[in-house]
Amino acid sequence: MKVAFLGPPGAGKGTQAQAVSRERKVPHISTGDILREAVQTGTPTGLKARAYVTAGKLVPDEIVVDIVAERLARPDCKQGFLLDGFPRTLGQAKALDAILAKSSMRLDAMLYYAVSDDVVVDRISGRRLCKSCGANYHVKYIAPRKSGVCDRCGGGLYQRADDKPETVKERLRVYREQTAELIDYYRANGLLKEISADNSVEAVRADTNRVLDAVAVR
Ligand code: AP5
Description:
This protein is of the alpha/beta class. Helices cover about 50% and strands about 15% of the residues. It is globular.
């Protein structure tokens, strides 16, 4: 299963990818998570990426493409992977095609999570993440049993720095300007599978699984 997840910030890509990864034992590769960790630990990549991530702008293609190429070369990706938040520009999409072609592979599907703007803002403003295990919550829709505490590991929950309203506005602008054109790219090559992401987590999960089951039997 070699699939990628596309959609605006807050569409629910990470929520669905985490669940699919757990259930189907496929590595979940989130470029946002990798970049945030690099920024936090101050690696050379993190130092280069910090200003872009903080401002809600895209990190330059060459940095992100190198990260993904290195990650996909690891043995656990031989049987499949879930790319979350990559590709995000036409340049990244073409680079991904080239990386996979080198290993005689190709993407099986691009899952596109279509969602309305007001839903996105509501989801992002309520998002909370676990500092220790990265589990993803929402104060209204996926609330932890005890406020501010992770159900899975007891870690503290925090709000992402780029989830501030001004930065979210910029991320949405960047999405429309640089990423939305990928919808046509993947529609044209027959890989686009659209999922209505305005629905509940469970309904979106059921649609995601239906698409992935169809991909798996092809
Ligand atoms: P990244 O981390 O990829 O952020 P994003 O694409 O903006 O997506 P999000 O993580 O905000 O949203 P999501 O769709 O995963 O939603 P989630 O499942 O959390 O990127 C961050 C930054 O890194 C970028 O701005 C850029 O600087 C850089 N970057 C990353 N990749 C890059 C690339 N390829 N090239 C260049 N730069 C790159 O859900 C949101 C909330 O809603 C959660 O609280 C969740 O619990 C809740 N929720 C989810 N689904 C539902 C539902 N169905 N109903 C109710 N609540 C729901």
